[in-house]
């Protein structure tokens, strides 16, 4: 296999891994979002509740980027 073929295969595999990882994170975020209780400021100090907002903000664009890269590979 030529260098270009190996590079193309590596690019496709990395795009597939990115799309798959983003999809798994999105599913986990949705599941945790459906099961969460309201955040109580005094009791939940130091919890991972603010992290969920980052997941909601970053995972959908990462998933779409992975699909875009997979489509161009």
Outline of this structure?
With 73 residues, this protein is an all-alpha fold. Helix content is 78%, strand content 0%.
Topology:
Elements: H1 3-35, H2 49-72
Helix pairs in contact: 1-2
3D architecture notes:
There is one protein chain. It contains two helices and no strands. The chain has 73 residues and is mainly α. The protein is rod-shaped and about 60 Å long. The two termini are 17 Å apart. The relative contact order is 0.19.
Strand content: under 5%
Count of extended strands: 0
CA gyration radius, whole angstroms? 17 Å
Unreliable stretches (pLDDT < 50, length at least 5) are: none
Major sheet description: none
In sequence order, what are the helices and strands, one letter per element? Answer: HH
Features:
single chain; mainly alpha; 73 residues; 78% helix
């Amino acid at each position: 296999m030529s260098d270009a073929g190996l590079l193309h295969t590596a690019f496709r595999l990395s795009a597939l891994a990115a799309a798959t990882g983003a999809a798994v994170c999105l599913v986990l975020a949705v599941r945790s979002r459906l099961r969460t209780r309201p955040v109580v400021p005094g009791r939940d100090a130091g919890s991972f509740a603010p992290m969920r907002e980052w997941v909601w903000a970053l995972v959908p664009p990462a998933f779409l980027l992975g699909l875009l890269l997979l489509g161009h590979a």
